[in-house]
Structures are given as C-alpha cells and as structure tokens.
Amino acid sequence: MRPSAQGCRDIVVCCCWIVESRAVRRNKPAPAAVFQPLDEATKLPRLRSNPRRAQRGDCVLALHEWFFNGCDVAGKPKSSKSTRQLTRWRVFLYRLAVWLTTAVLEILWRTCRIDIVPADRLTNLVREHGALVPVFWHQHLLMCARFLVSDRIPGYKPGFMISPSVDGEAPTMLAHSYGAHVVRGSGSYTGMRAVRGVHQAIVKDGISAAVTPDGPRGPRFKFKPGALFVARIAGRPVVPIAYAARPAFMMKTWDKFIIPVPFGRICMAIGEPYFPGKLSEAEMVAAQLEMEQRLHATYQQAKAVIDAPRSALRLRSQQDSQSQGGSHGVNSH
C-alpha cells in the first residue's frame, strides 16, 4: 500500500532534522547545490527569522523536492514511464492478447485487397542497402508491421525496436511469433545496450529495425529523434511507410489507432528514403520536422489511391500495361 503524501512529507521532515542536527554538531554547512529553498506553492510551513530554523526549513524544502523528484503536491508522479510490473497474470493476459491479435491480423491480411505504391521501391532499397530503418506512425502499426513480416519484400529481414518497459512485452511476443528480431529501445532515447543491439542487428545481421517515432505513448504525430539516431549510427536510410484503408475503424485512443474491416481495400505507400548524417541540435529538430512532413505526404499518397474510383485505377493499369507492351515492341524491332 502506497503511503499518503502527508505521511511521506512527515518522514522527510524527520530526516531533515537528523541531517541538520548532525551538520550543526560537526560545524559543516549543508551543500548549497542540494539545499535550495523552493517556491512557496509547496504549502510547507513558512521559514522563521531564527537562522537555525531557517536552515532547517531550507533542508525540509530541499529534501521535499529531492524526495518526490518530479511529483506534484498530491504525490502523483509526473513521469510518463510505466511503473507496472510483469506479473504472471499480466503475462497470461499478454499471451491471450497476442493470440487474438494474430487471429485478427491474419483475417485482415488474407481477406483484404492490398496495393503497394510504388510496388518496387522497398525491394530496390533492400537490394541496394541490405537493411533499412522503416518508420510509421503508431496509428498505422497494425497493418504496417504485418506488411513488413510478409513475404512481399524479397531479401527483407524484419525487425522492430520496441519499448523496454512492461508496455512493450506484448508487442515483443507478437513480433517473436512472426519470427521477427526485436531490439528493446525507445523512439525518444536509446541506451547503450539498445545502441549495441541496433548496430549488431542492422550492420552485422542485415535486419531492418522498424520504429514507431511517436510511440509508445505519444504525442501523436511527433517524430522523436530515436529513429534518426539509429539510422545515423548504422549508416542506413530512414524509409517512411503509411497505409490507408476503406472501410476502417478509428479507435478512441491517443493515437487514433486504425483497424481495417475484412474484405476491404488497403493501400500501403512507401515514401522517399531519408539519409541522416551528422546533425547538430538545430539540424536534428529540422530533420524531425522533415520526417513528419514525409510521413504525412506518404499517407496522402496512399489515401489518394484509396479515394480514386476503381474504374480510373483499372484504366490506369491498362494504360501502363499497354505502354510497357509498346516499349517492348519498339525494343524488339
């Protein structure tokens, strides 16, 4: 059971009295970098004119800030990182969710009509660079991930960078069920272990580690620097991917998650690759904005194909086939 904020505050006050009394006995002043007075908004007792009590009050205020470390007055953490633990019951629920997700994915993948535009861009990039860093919004995670683990990309070795928190356990299980490689990292930062894992996977093993740059918890459509950092250390291009579906459901989640309907239409669009070099802080921000625009443009490309009438698409395919046949005839003469 978690103690209340008032109980924690009382414990801190007692610790401050001990620290302050020992400092006075040894004639050692408290470190100025630690014991700094806080704002009066903390609602702690005001400091009195007595110097010793003022010093004690500074200790109380400073240790209050250090003890809660980012918590508000009510004692609730402001950090967005998950504090949940991986219990046996949670593992069971994750395995059940992975089984259900796999069933839904296979139904959608096998019943929907899927178009890829341009059809050969990803294959050519894999043939040229060996491994890539595909990126797509968390909103498009369902079908983009299924597309990357399919057999439609010759020579492509699928992999995913997934959050190292408990929230990433279910996606890790799902990726392993499809035989994909997993590197535990984040879209906002990567630790040394994740960096070594990414370098080993991409450079040495030729695995393309896909990243959702606005995951795992948002903000929505905000490109975090993790994918650019991974691509720079590996010397590989960042490839934006997006899809549009009709009909489809939009979930009421932070990312507006998209779930297509069986027997519908899906268009998977592959954007222009981006090659990040050595970037300064300002250049990194500009590169993040550039990738946001490219991802949105890639989605618009897929949406244009979905919105186009089928008759126009059929006519365009016939014209392409005729032009290819005419070119072959000219070459034969």
Biggest sheet layout: 4 strands, mixed
Count of runs of 4 or more consecutive helical residues: 10
Which residue ranges are poorly predicted, with pLDDT under 50 across at least 5 consecutive positions? 16-26, 28-80, 326-333
The end-to-end span amounts to 85 Å
Which strand-content bin applies to the residues? 5-15%
What is the count of β-strands? 7
Overall shape: it is: globular
CATH topology of the largest domain: Glycerol-3-phosphate (1)-acyltransferase
H-E order: HHHEHEHEHEHEHEEHH
Radius of gyration: 27 Å
Element layout with pairings:
Elements: H1 5-25, H2 51-68, H3 88-111, E1 113-117, H4 121-129, E2 133-135, H5 141-148, E3 158-162, H6 169-177, E4 181-184, H7 192-204, E5 208-210, H8 226-234, E6 238-250, E7 258-270, H9 281-307, H10 310-332
Describe the fold and architecture.
By secondary structure, the chain is α/β, with parallel strands linked by helices. The chain has two domains: 5-68, no CATH class; 89-321, Glycerol-3-phosphate (1)-acyltransferase (3-Layer(aba) Sandwich). It contains ten helices and seven strands. It has helices at residues 5-25, 51-68, 88-111, 121-129, 141-148, 169-177, 192-204, 226-234, 281-307, 310-332; strands at residues 113-117, 133-135, 158-162, 181-184, 208-210, 238-250, 258-270. A four-stranded mixed β-sheet has the order 1-7-6-2, sandwiched between helices. Strands 4-3-5 form a three-stranded parallel β-sheet, sandwiched between helices. Strand 3, helix 6 (169-177) and strand 4 (181-184) form a beta-alpha-beta unit. Helix 1 (5-25) packs across helix 2 and helix 3 packs across helix 6 (169-177). The radius of gyration is 27 Å and the shape is globular. The termini are far apart. Mean pLDDT is 76; it is low at 16-26, 28-80 and 326-333.
